[in-house]
Amino acid sequence: MKEKQDFQIFIISRFLVSLIYVVLSEFLIWFATDRIKHLFQGGVSMAIFIAGIIIMIIPIIVASLLFSKALVDEVHRMNQEKEEMRKGYEKKRNLMLSDIAHDLRTPITTIAGYSKALNDDMVISEEKKKEYLQAIENKSARMNDLINLLFEYVRLDSANYGLRKDEIDLSELLRTIAASLYSDVEEKGMEFQISIPEEVHLITLDRVQFSRVIVNLINNAIKHNEKGTVISLEMKPEKDKIVIEVSDNGGLIPTFLAEQIFEPFAMGDASRTAQSGSGLGLSIAKKIVEMHGWSLELKQYYEEYRKSFIIEIK
After folding, report:
1. Domain 99-157 has CATH 2.40.128
2. 160, 288, 155: which is closest to 212 by C-alpha?
3. Of 16, 8, 118, nearest to 63 (Cα)?
């Protein structure tokens, strides 16, 4: 839509420039012709008349040629941009598919190996059997989570998907989410600080999808920080916007990773393997926030915290 509007603005602006050029040229030619007529005391020969007509047509031809060239150049530029975007999208898609295959291959290999060992009666110890079965269950759950995340990412990216928005009290929604996750934070030996105003703040949003964003950000802080970390959920109503911050005083995110943290599978192989994360969760969160017309960004060394995910609602 924006690309179409930009192209329409370009056409109108170039047309106006060409029109102004023609009007000014015709005025100058008319003025010059009028002076010539006075010099010849009102008597204009046929040759002078024809020459005047030709001279008056020239600016129109020049303006038409310039307008056509500008139009062709703009269309060519737009086509080049589309081609570059297409190539970039295909590259990202291929990388994502490669990462999906990588993340699915490990649990599949483990499940296949443990299943074969159990089926071939290679495991005698009952304790070892339980260990293998538990590993199969864990890897299956991991695969299921990854597939669900991938399904959600693709669904949000589809052209016919739309948010189901209602007018919601944002303060109450955040309090409900915080209450549901409080025990998860405590179980990890972390501290949960919550700062949400009592006043009602009605915002039009998709309750299910926006709740997913906040839950994802808090779970991300729980999963990727050590025991004793302080996690904060804060809502700050300001004059022309509302800011929601999910912060913690845990470890910093490496710069190279922070710059692409919202890209699918941005966590990298080592991080995904060690911490059972796919990197899809933050991509989904950012996509949902942007679908609402808002913004989500990561800031490190933010106020008294090491890192903070900040949502701006305008």
Report:
1. no
2. 288
3. 16
The reported pTM is 0.64
Backbone angles phi and psi of 195, in degrees to 5: -135, 95
Contact in structure between 209 and 163 (CB atoms under 8 Å): yes
How many CB atoms sit inside 10 A of residue 184's CB?
15
User: For residue 139, what are its two tokens?
Assistant: 């890897």
Residue 50 burial (10 A CB sphere; 0-12, 13-18, 19+):
exposed
Question: From 3.30.565.10, 3.50.50.60, 3.10.129.10, 2.60.40.10, which CATH number describes the 166-313 domain?
Answer: 3.30.565.10
Query: 193 in helix, strand or coil?
Result: strand
Q: What is the pLDDT of residues 94-145, one digit of tens each?
A: 666 666 777 778 788 888 888 988 888 888 888 888 988 998 988 888 788 7
Start and end residues for every CATH 3.30.565.10 domain found in the chain: 166-313
CATH 1.10.287 range(s) for the chain read 99-157
Q: Please report the beta strands in the chain, taking only residues with DSSP state E, as ranges in sequence order.
A: 166-169, 191-195, 202-205, 230-237, 242-248, 295-302, 305-313
